[in-house]
């Protein structure tokens, strides 16, 4: 072995050691600061982690684009919905007067709110785009109660890091981290454009997460659960979920 | 490096026989070639880019199937008129395609793969561009020489291709002006454009950097542009591979894998 190749060998060894320890430090840092998504395992884990970590590092507080009233879509597109179950139809028969939204899990005061209760919170309206992972989109005005107001009233405990939100459809739920749950534009929408939120668009209550793709905006929401780990409620990892196999973080 | 000292190196071991000496005396000429045809970093980043691009292409086509309609402006969906449609069946029943069937939904893994491959492409591209600036790779190997920056030299290269003239000596040592301009166009225009138009479809990215999508005329415009830039990149790939096959697949592959030129093509 000549002198030069030995020097190269030592340099390469040092570089590899530095690289591996650098990665270990980065992984530790990422875990500590909540930059690792729940679906970070498997072959797509590195890409998912980079995407989620980049968003949370550089744009945690960014606001989704809001549009002028003139850009509201004349013909919004209501995507297909699963068949409505009997529980939904019963509530629909009563004009949703008995619709309840329960808040539980890691909160100081669990609650159960009617739509009228929700309307007594400060109201926010925003004109944002619904972006489907398939490629299509529309702009609508969404009117509702900011999620952070409801969470504030119930008092999220310090260990609460994720929010799992459930549809009345038993197989439909999603989860987001607290950065999105506490985000000012994350909205419990009960009205759209000029009237009540139509059933086809998720009425009477839809959780709008405008910084993420449409599939994170679950329709017919009845329950919010604050948890320290979304384990078991990451639809991407659950074969029963309609969004099974889809990335947990849907900001891209 | 003993072998570089001169042709007498072989003579020391010449007692082993003429045949051995002939082989040894061959070795210095290999070493004396100077730098390899393609630098190690160029070769490694080239092949990572190949793998990433193919993954992006397959997953991109798969994602396109879920909505093979294109629009201009901010919004567009199955209830709004399309700018144009790709006449293929879709993986969604909500898209009017005229076909009586719906393909299976593959968007889950396709989207995972698309973004992971995009990260690989972006990170590899950054390493390549930064090192290319550092080592003056672009200036030395890709930026056309002043004498070649004329329409006449473009015309002569194109005419040579149209005559199907065999490549001459110089073509094996460096790139002609058409190759140089094409590579620079791909590296500094098309790839940055495909990344930009791709990011301009991300609701999270658009929240952070709204001008990236607004300057393109809206999210659907970004999607349509992403499609066309991808078409140009695929065209580049087709011509690139065709030229490699036409000028000698084995030698071109050898150059891009080992960095060494084929012996008969050495000067």
What does this structure look like?
The complex is a heterodimer of chains A (252) and B (267). Chain A is an alpha+beta fold and 252 residues long. Chain A has a domain at 65-237: Oxidoreductase, molybdopterin-binding domain (Sulfite Oxidase, Chain A, domain 2, Alpha-Beta Complex). Chain A is built from six helices and ten strands; from the N terminus they run H-H-H-E-E-H-E-E-H-E-E-H-E-E-E-E. Chain A has a five-stranded mixed beta sheet with strand order 2-1-10-5-6. Chain A starts with a helix and ends in a 25-residue tail after the last strand. By secondary structure, chain B is mostly helical. Chain B has two domains: 1-32; 38-265, Transmembrane di-heme cytochromes, Chain C (Fumarate Reductase Cytochrome B subunit, Up-down Bundle), CATH 1.20.950. Chain B contains eleven helices and two strands. A two-stranded antiparallel ribbon of chain B has the order 1-2. Chain B is elongated, with a radius of gyration of 24 Å. Chain B starts with 17 loop residues before the first helix and ends in a 9-residue tail after the last helix. The A-B interface holds A 2, 4, 43-44, 46-48, 50-51, 55, 58-59, 62-65, 67, 71, 73, 75-77, 79-80, 129, 131-139, 210-213, 236, 244-247, 251-252 and B 1, 63-64, 66-67, 69, 74-80, 92-95, 107-109, 111-113, 115-120, 201-208, 210, 213-214, 219-220, 223.
Oligomeric state of the chains in view = heterodimer
* Most extensive interface: A-B, 45 and 43 residues
Strand composition percent of chain A:
15-25%
Mean pLDDT of chain B: 85
Strand neighbour order, sheet with most strands of chain A: 2-1-10-5-6
Shape of chain B: elongated
Q: Based on the coordinates given, report the CATH architecture of the domain at 65-237 in chain A.
A: Alpha-Beta Complex
Radius of gyration of chain B: 24 Å
Class by SSE composition of chain A: alpha+beta
């Amino acid at each position: 072995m000549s002198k030069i190749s030995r020097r190269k060998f030592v340099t390469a060894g040092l570089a590899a050691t530095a690289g591996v320890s650098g990665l270990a430090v980065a992984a530790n840092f990422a875990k500590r600061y909540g930059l690792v998504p729940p679906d970070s395992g498997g072959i797509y884990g590195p890409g998912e982690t980079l995407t989620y970590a980049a968003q949370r590092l550089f744009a945690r507080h960014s606001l989704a684009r809001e549009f002028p009233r003139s850009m509201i879509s004349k013909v919004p597109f209501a995507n297909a919905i699963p068949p409505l179950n009997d529980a939904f139809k019963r509530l629909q028969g009563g004009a949703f007067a008995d619709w309840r939204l329960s808040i539980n899990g890691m909160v100081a005061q669990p609650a159960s709110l009617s739509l009228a209760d929700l309307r007594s919170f400060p109201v926010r309206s925003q004109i944002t785009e619904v972006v489907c992972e398939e490629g299509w989109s529309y702009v609508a005005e969404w009117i509702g109660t900011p999620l952070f107001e409801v969470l504030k009233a119930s008092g999220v405990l310090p260990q609460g890091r994720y929010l799992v939100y459930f549809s009345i459809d038993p197989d439909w739920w999603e989860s987001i981290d607290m950065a999105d749950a506490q985000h000012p534009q994350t909205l419990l929408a009960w009205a759209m454009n000029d009237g009540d939120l139509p059933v086809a668009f998720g009425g009477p209550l839809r959780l709008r997460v405008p910084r993420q793709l449409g599939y994170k905006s679950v329709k017919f929401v009845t329950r919010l659960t604050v948890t320290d780990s979304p384990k078991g409620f990451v639809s991407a990892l659950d074969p029963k979920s309609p969004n099974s196999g889809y990335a947990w973080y849907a900001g891209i | 490096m003993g072998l570089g000292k001169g042709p007498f190196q072989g003579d020391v071991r010449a007692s082993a026989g003429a045949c051995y000496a002939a082989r040894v005396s061959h070795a210095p000429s290999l070493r004396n070639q100077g730098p390899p045809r393609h630098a190690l970093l160029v070769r490694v980043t080239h092949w990572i880019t190949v793998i990433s691009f193919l993954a992006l292409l397959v997953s991109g086509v798969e994602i396109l199937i879920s909505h093979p309609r294109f629009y201009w402006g901010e919004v567009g969906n199955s209830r709004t008129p399309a700018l144009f449609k790709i006449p293929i069946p879709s993986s969604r029943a909500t898209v009017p395609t005229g076909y009586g069937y719906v393909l299976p939904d593959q968007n889950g893994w396709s989207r995972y793969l698309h973004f992971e491959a995009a990260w690989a492409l972006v990170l590899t591209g950054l390493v390549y561009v930064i090192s290319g600036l550092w080592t003056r790779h672009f200036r030395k190997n890709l930026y056309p020489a002043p004498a070649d920056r004329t329409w006449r030299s473009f015309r002569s290269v194109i005419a040579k291709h149209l005559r199907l003239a065999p490549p001459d000596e110089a073509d094996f040592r460096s790139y002609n002006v058409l190759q140089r301009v094409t590579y620079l166009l791909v590296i500094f225009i098309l790839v940055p454009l495909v990344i930009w138009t791709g990011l301009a479809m991300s609701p999270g990215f658009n929240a952070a950097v709204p001008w990236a999508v607004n300057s393109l005329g809206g999210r659907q415009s970004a999607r349509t542009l992403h499609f066309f830039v991808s078409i140009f990149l695929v065209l580049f790939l087709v011509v690139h591979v065709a030229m490699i096959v036409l000028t000698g697949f084995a030698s071109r592959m050898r150059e891009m894998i080992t960095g060494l030129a084929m012996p008969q093509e050495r000067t």
